[in-house]
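[Q] Does anyone have a clean structure-token version of this?
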Amino acid sequence: MLSIGLGNLAAIAQTNLKRMLAYSTIAQIGFVLLALLSGMVNGNGLSASTAYSGAMFYMVIYVLTTLGTFGVILLLAREGFEAEDIRDFSGLAKTDPWMAGVMTFLLFSLAGIPPFAGFYAKFEVLTILLYTGRVWLVVYAVLLSVIGAFYYIRVIKVMYFDPPSALSATRAAGGGGARALLSLNGLAVLILGLMPGGLMTLCYQAMANTLH
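[A] Here you go.
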């Protein structure tokens, strides 16, 4: 519980994008721990396999999304574009609309906004908590998720509604292979949000085989 609250509050205060993502990781791990905790509760009709598979699904989605997000940051930095401060992304939608779009997909997923995979991952954890009767934890997690969405949406606002910075306006083009890979990553978080069943089944089978 503390990790979700402290991670979100610390991330809101950051202007350095990498540091913001690092603090948000603390909050994201809090959701995984909530699912794991639910799997340790007996006598509630919820199997450990279901709870642990929810935690595993969340981790897979989070790792996939975070790798893509840092990939965009590193790609832009490699191309001569300063990619440290949130303000460095000002007007990116005008200077590089494709990468701005990929980054938007990834940030929406991290924020847990539908129809992206991060939404389903959070929804799965909240459903597990409801089955174990922890309604107050669901309310707490939802409220902090809404607060946490602010700092992700702030980056999107800067990309689309702020004028381009001097550095972003002069950024060089390139990195075709990396751009294609990151585009697939962004597409994956959308597809897994729309059709999460296959990955969720794999996670459940993996946990069931491990526990039995």
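[Q] Thanks! Anything notable?
[A] The first helix runs from residue 2 to 12.
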